[in-house]
Specification:
The structure holds 2 protein chains of 2 kinds.
Chain A lengths: L7 H9 L7 H13 L2 H17 L1 H6 L4 H23 L3 H16 L3 H19 L7 H20 L1
Helix pairs in contact in A: 3-5, 3-7, 5-6, 6-7, 6-8, 7-8
Chain B lengths: L2 H7 L13 E5 L3 H14 L3 E5 L2 H10 L4 E5 L8 H10 L4 H4 L3 E5 L4 H10 L3 E4 L4 H13 L4 E4 L2 E4 L20 E2 L15
Parallel strand pairs in B: 1-2, 1-3, 3-4, 4-5
Antiparallel strand pairs in B: 6-7, 6-8
Classes of the chains: A mainly alpha, B alpha/beta.
Protein name (chain B): Response regulator
Pfam families (chain B): Response_reg
Keywords (chain B): Phosphoprotein
Chain lengths: 158, 196
Amino acid sequence: MSNGLLSPLARLRALVFSGKGRSERELVAAGEARVGLLRDDFENEALTIADRLLTLEHDIAADATSEEGAASRMTARRWTRELREASLLHNYPLIEVVTGSLLAWLEDHSNSPRLARALKAHARALRDIVNGKLRGDQAHARELLTATLQAELHADHA
Amino acid sequence: MSLARLEDKKSPAEKKFDFAPLSILVCDSSVSMLKLYKEALGGIGFGSIYTTREVAEAKHVMADSTVDMIVMDVVDEHDKPSGLLFLKELRRWSDDKMATLPVIVASSRVTPQQVVAARDAGMNEFLIKPFSVGSLFRSVARIVEDPKAFVRIGKYIGPCRRRRALPINAPDRRRTQAGVIPAAPIQTAALGAGSH
């Protein structure tokens, strides 16, 4: 312990409430402003993750239940989850919709070819959102996404 | 009356927080999440922010630098609960200053079982991902505003898990039990230079 009279947490408390500083509202606003500056980085990240997801398509299509397929599926889940978390913090509802939908696919579906097609369709939708081809509010986005995914799934299946 | 006690009397909107003297370590396997943490915690005012992707790196930072608080994801990049395992290990370190470090456990998959597991591993706060800057702030603020006694009882080592003050019909012996490090009275005058 750094000081015999103070427990570690009491020491932190004394440092934080030393009479200086700013209010909760000011500090949270400062944090939100700095997080907001990462929006461009986030868009690049979303494109990168969309491209990375596409690289997993082959393993998943071959056999989602094999060792390689399961590992690819786990990796896809991790990347998608990361992107979803960041999309919520950066307020990108369209990406939130797509990543939420893809997570559900990755967690609930074991049919390999169909899962691989869904992965591809979602990754394409992500690229379209970042490139500005898919626009609209969240409800509109859900409709667009549904239509896009249906078209992609049917086209690939044909 | 100490400044910390004076702050207690103020309404939440009037309280002034200064995290500049503190350093915080964040461990999360996602590089983009680490960027977000860094900016959010920087805005909140932490003086030093260390970011690591793995528990092993986090241990190196703790060995080389002063760390006052930790934010750690439950799972690593392989979806293994390495964050929770590390928390259990940390609470058993022989160095009191390290063993009692406040730890915020973050997770994107929140089930009651996972929250109980994190609580029983010795967490101070649980942060649900995706988090807002406001919820991150409140997790950090709760640790300093409402410090919990650190207890070593039976198999459990960590901050007191009681969150509710329920009446008891017997003498209260909790503060006299061996293994309890109480949240000591605030004595800002005794806080020596170089304590950080």
